[in-house]
Sequence to fold (313 residues):
Amino acid sequence: MVKKGKINFDQTKLLIILMLILAAGISIYSPNFLTGRNIRNIFTQNAVTGILAVGMTLVMISGGIDLGVGNLVSFIGCLMALMLKNGMGEGPAMLLALLTATLCGIITGAIVSFTSAQPFIITLGMMNVYKALALITANGSDIPIGTQFQFLGKTYLYTILFPVWIFIVLFLLLYLILSRTSLGRTVYCIGSNPEAAYISGIAVKSQKILIYGLNGFITGFAALVLLSRLGSAGPTMGDNYEMQAISACAIGGVTLTGGVGSAAGVFLGVLFLGLVRNGLNMMGVPSFYQYLVNGVIIIIAVVFSNYAEQKKS
Fold:
């Protein structure tokens, strides 16, 4: 049974209310907070997290998780930069980088599917594998790309950077996939009850591999966007991005047990985290207190989601 209903609506509505309250409160301390320029900055600063959250949403609703996406961003970014440095054209390098990222996702999905091991443990191991690959590829140092490959991260379209448009379009596609396609229904079914999904004729293992493969492809794309934006690659460029993506999903109403979540909720979760970070920066709050605030917000969001799910059940 697909668990789409009250929990998603309630959490989404709560996020909208909290964002309005936060925006009003922060704007009292900083009149520049609600300016068009700062709103664009919030979207720009969280575009990569938003792109990663698209793939993570599919994985988590299907009952999985992927702790390796941050280090996969580092590995693919370093791989792309190394290929550019060695004279490969941007088109072939992008294609090879995306194929590599997709293959990494497929391998992860195959291990999770055919071993029946916990995705948390498998992807924890893959996280270390990707970190090693990033360090080996970059030889432990940054790889600058100079003026190459700027179009994906530094191009403006109607005064808005291209990564923001990518972030928005991907979430629109995610919404369509989850609400209008058989793949979306399959994702919810597998996350809700994999045994029932198998009995109903769904090829659970192959679908999980497909989901992790899509997540790998999206992660690779996020790596290319980040590389283009930064102008260099390094073994630490993707650090902590996995936590940001998972946090956005949790705040947006996606539960770790699977079967629950929405594109709109995760989209708001990404923006909510960005709004909090931006607001705390504008208020001059030290970074170590910001970690505390972010941690408390995530805990509250997860507790609320679990409570709402249990009440509904």
